[in-house]
Amino acid sequence: MQGKSLHRKMEAIPLLSVRWGILGTGWVSTRFAADLLNPRSSTPVRHKIAALGTSLEVKGASFISTLFPSGAPDSGKPKIYTSYSDVYIDPEVDIVYIGTPHSYHKEQCLAAIAAGKHVLCEKPFTINAAEAEEVIAAAKVKGVYIMEAVWTRFFPLVLDLKKMLHEDKIIGDIHRMTCDFSLQKDMENLPATHRYKDINLGGGALLDIGVYPLMWSNIVLDGSVGSSASTPEVSSTMVVIDGVDHEDVVVMKYPETNRVGVLTASLRAKGTEEFLKVEGSKGVITVSGPGCSLPKKVKIQVEGEEERVMNYDHEAMGFRFEADSVAKDVLEGRKENLIMPLKETVRMMRVMDGIRKQGGVVYPQDEQR
Ligand SMILES: NC(=O)C1=CN([C@@H]2O[C@H](COP(=O)(O)OP(=O)(O)OC[C@H]3O[C@@H](n4cnc5c(N)ncnc54)[C@H](OP(=O)(O)O)[C@@H]3O)[C@@H](O)[C@H]2O)C=CC1
Ligand SMILES: O=C1OC[C@@H](O)[C@H](O)[C@H]1O
């Protein structure tokens, strides 16, 4: 009897599964999908890609051939739809992942919600705060889950850094930070229709990469999200070419704590591996990585102590941390995520609306209001 119950305890607990429908076959969808399928040593959930929405069959076939080894059985592969609408109505899709240019996010979120699907939508959630509020209201009415895919927030490095700064206070009182995300793009020679340049696709640096320094300033200078976060004073300037921002400089000041941040984003500069520096009363912390969205190394210099370096290597690219968190939420019946709550999305969109107002970037979606 005892033996039997012991045996039962050792039986493997079946992993719960979520089924994804992916929209778009571009840069981010390809990497997100590869991370979903990457086998991991430990995982709270099994991810299946049930469907793929793409403009062209041939793009879908190539997407699938990069994800699955040749000879893999067709039964494990997603269905390819050449109309995104078919992804929304596929009964085998639980969560729709939106990996298309910014300007499509609102209508695609609304369509997926209307079909009763849960949604993970790439950053920036929408073009402006008014659009974000409309989407969130629709998800609430329909009773579905939705989250903005701010993947960086889910990295163990970020969770550790928050603890070091705000709970353990290892560098004492935080005074200031600088953060930069620069992607050297050949802006002059990119076609006018490229998503970095086209105002109709939400082009420019702020919505594409400026969101990350803004995220870091919230993590470092505040530490709370959504309705618990404090409101910083924001001043900014932008270099605007053909209507979209190629360079952004933002100064954040938190009047309650006297903390300040200088944030930059550039589609022209190259940037450096070390993208974040935080200075406090007892020391300095720097964070580096291949980009501001992909932190890999934390260097801690505390006065009177030996310098410490913490390297964070993880399996695949790192999309799996957010994907696991979303899947767990959905399986456990939550309607939003605690690490990236919807109020944080709206708060960030409002900050970006204000920065664009100061810098003079107006999207067609702003004028429709
Ligand atoms: N979290 C992260 O690290 C990252 C997030 N992103 C976000 O993801 C979104 C997509 O970015 P990214 O993958 O770099 O973009 P890409 O241009 O590489 O891919 C976008 C895909 O969207 C589909 N699409 C639909 N309509 C259009 C259109 N008019 N123009 C271009 N593509 C269209 C296409 O897929 P198809 O033809 O197959 O339908 C295309 O491949 C952006 O909102 C961006 O901010 C981007 C990079 C990294
Ligand atoms: O989120 C992003 O991070 C990486 C960049 O290459 C990309 O343009 C941006 O959307």
UniProtKB/TrEMBL annotation:
Keyword Oxidoreductase assigned: yes
Every Gfo/Idh/MocA-like oxidoreductase N-terminal domain range: 18-147
The enzyme's E.C. designation: 1.1.1.179
Enzyme superclass (EC): oxidoreductase
Pfam families named in the record: GFO_IDH_MocA, GFO_IDH_MocA_C3
Keyword Ligase: no
GO molecular function: D-xylose 1-dehydrogenase (NADP+) activity; nucleotide binding
Catalytic activity: D-xylose + NADP(+) = D-xylono-1,5-lactone + NADPH + H(+)
Keywords attached to this entry: Oxidoreductase
Domain GFO/IDH/MocA-like oxidoreductase: 162-285
PANTHER family named among the record's database cross-references: OXIDOREDUCTASES (PTHR22604), TRANS-1,2-DIHYDROBENZENE-1,2-DIOL DEHYDROGENASE (PTHR22604:SF105)
Family, as annotated: Belongs to the Gfo/Idh/MocA family.
Name of this protein: D-xylose 1-dehydrogenase (NADP(+), D-xylono-1,5-lactone-forming)
Organism of derivation: Hyaloscypha bicolor E
